[in-house]
Structure to design on (577 residues):
């Protein structure tokens, strides 16, 4: 059948409109026709439709479509298209009813729709109530699917994905198209697909890898090519995020075990946040916990396979029933992940001091001592103050590691500068040298003086707008121990702000007396870190204290934040491990 034959003239009418298309590398304007709806049918090779057809065949048998008439075939697929995005269908339908069809479709001469499935669907629904809508405006390509299947597919991709305004395809539908056109049939090469969709070859190669994972997931479930299963499980983000983790596996058997572990978690629906799940996997790899985790996953995989393959499952409903009936396996998957993440965090916490010291050493190596001769007196004093503070911090760390008191080279960091600047008015001293309230040994000072804690009149610092503020994630929780940990992150990074920030943190009481050790933290964007604090014993008698937050850019009497905490001491140690 060819709709361009004379016998169809009453049902196929030329218009004065044209539409530009590129076919076989040639771009030209094609005639637009008005075609009766009953002569047209949906394209079962369309990526979106193929996903729904797999579901229909699963429910009604592999040969289900062969016994349908064209009308029945169109009715079935129309229902799929409406279900895929009912909101968009209703919007397009209302628009066509108001101003008629504005954008022509593209069909083959046998009536197969290459572009315009949604418009065709809306017109079919409108025509049931108003015969004025029984026409479809479209270009008719004088070819059949079997004549130039490759060129037709490239044209469809160019129309659906390559234009500036792309159709809102479900990501699963796109992966199904990539799998069928590049992997399964080899109809198109990666380069041809990229050219048709106006994408880079690298982007298409990544999509091919995702499509391969999609196929492997369905094979793992013993449901090959049942693409609707993947659509219901929303696997695209997981597949995208898991590829780098798979490539980091040092052994091939570990990569396979990790892949099956992720498939298991998808099947048992234990992944609430796919990106967090993969981040946890990466954390395990970085901390050496991954091997233990993956060995346990191999054991769980064996249990799941024994049950999963005992009686073949046929559809999504049976998969859900399998997950519901095996909640003990789902709990084992979640518990293994939670325990491994906890172990990984413990290792991160223990390694953080060493990492901070190494980072500091690296930065100190970059200090150019040749410029010291160019510094003026104020600049020298400020530098000597900072070096003194650094020396005291190093001695404090040494004493904590060895348990021995390390003699202070400079008991008062101002001693040297005060001798040199005795004739200089006090106001000329740098702000950072005014009071040693940033000293990490405040807590020891408090204990030695039997509760006489250093007091300071803090003032509000000017906000550094290029520096994201730090957020305490535990500020709604009371403090119940003298030794405890808090978790911190940075607020959402704005375009003009840095991707990291450093802060000094310590606790004060209601009278601004310092009652804790000081901690310094450097946070990256999207990072959560914990810090341990030790409160002075005088805090046990109080009901409230404040977390003082200082930017490392500010002097020690300036505060960026002062966060209140309730005190409710129970005297049980919590070391955050």
């Amino acid at each position: 059948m060819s709709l361009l034959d004379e016998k169809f003239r009453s049902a196929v009418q030329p218009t004065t409109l044209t539409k530009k298309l590129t076919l076989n590398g040639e771009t030209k304007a094609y005639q637009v026709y008005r075609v009766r709806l009953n002569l047209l049918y949906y394209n079962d090779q369309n990526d979106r439709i193929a996903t729904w057809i797999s579901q229909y065949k699963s429910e009604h048998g592999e040969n289900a479509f062969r016994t349908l008439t064209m009308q029945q075939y169109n009715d079935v697929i129309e229902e799929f298209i409406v279900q895929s995005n009912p909101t968009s269908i209703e919007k397009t339908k209302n628009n066509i009813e108001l101003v008629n069809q504005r954008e022509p479709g593209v069909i083959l001469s046998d009536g197969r729709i290459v572009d315009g499935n949604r418009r065709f669907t809306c017109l079919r629904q409108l025509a049931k109530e108003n015969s004025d809508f029984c026409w479809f405006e479209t270009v008719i390509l004088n070819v059949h699917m079997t004549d130039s299947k490759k060129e037709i597919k490239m044209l469809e991709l160019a129309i659906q994905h390559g234009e500036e305004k792309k159709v809102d395809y479900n990501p699963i539908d796109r992966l199904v198209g990539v799998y069928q056109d590049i992997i399964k049939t080899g109809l198109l090469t990666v380069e041809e697909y990229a050219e048709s969709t106006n994408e880079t070859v690298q982007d298409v190669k990544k999509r091919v890898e995702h499509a391969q994972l999609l196929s492997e997931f369905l094979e793992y479930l013993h449901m090959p090519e049942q693409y609707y299963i993947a659509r219901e499980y929303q696997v695209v983000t997981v597949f995208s995020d898991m590829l780098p983790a798979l490539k980091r596996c040092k052994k091939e058997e570990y990569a396979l075990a990790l892949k099956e572990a992720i498939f298991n978690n998808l099947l048992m629906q234990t992944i609430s946040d796919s990106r967090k799940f993969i981040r946890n996997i990466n954390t395990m790899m970085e901390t050496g916990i991954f091997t233990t985790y993956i060995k346990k996953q191999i054991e769980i995989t064996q249990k799941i396979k024994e049950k999963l393959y005992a009686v073949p499952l046929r559809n999504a409903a049976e998969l859900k029933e399998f997950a519901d009936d095996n909640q003990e396996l789902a709990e084992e998957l979640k518990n293994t992940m939670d325990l491994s993440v906890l172990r990984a965090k413990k290792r991160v916490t223990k390694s953080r001091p060493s990492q901070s010291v190494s980072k500091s050493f690296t930065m100190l190596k970059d200090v150019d001592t040749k410029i010291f001769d160019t510094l003026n007196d104020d600049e020298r004093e400020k530098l000597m103050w900072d070096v003194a503070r650094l020396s005291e911090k190093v001695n404090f760390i040494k004493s904590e590691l060895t348990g021995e008191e390390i003699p202070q080279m400079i008991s008062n960091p101002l001693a040297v500068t005060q001798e040199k600047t005795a004739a200089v008015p006090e106001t000329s001293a740098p702000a950072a040298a005014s009071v040693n309230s940033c000293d990490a040994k405040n807590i020891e000072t408090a204990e030695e003086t039997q509760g006489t804690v250093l007091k300071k009149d803090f003032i509000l610092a000017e906000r550094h707008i290029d520096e994201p503020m730090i957020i305490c994630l535990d500020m709604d929780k009371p403090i119940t121990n003298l030794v405890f940990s808090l978790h911190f992150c940075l607020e959402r990074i704005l375009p003009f702000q840095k991707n990291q920030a450093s802060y000094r943190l310590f606790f004060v009481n209601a009278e601004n007396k310092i009652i804790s050790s000081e901690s310094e933290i450097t946070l990256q964007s999207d990072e959560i870190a914990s810090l341990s604090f030790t409160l002075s014993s005088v805090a046990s008698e109080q009901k409230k204290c404040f977390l003082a937050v200082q930017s490392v850019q500010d002097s020690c009497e300036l505060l960026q934040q002062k966060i209140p905490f309730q005190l409710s001491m129970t005297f049980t140690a919590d070391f955050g491990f």
Observations:
- Residues 1-167 form one domain.
- DSSP finds 18 helices and 14 strands in the chain.
- Residues 410-437, 439-452, 571-577 have pLDDT under 50 and may be disordered.
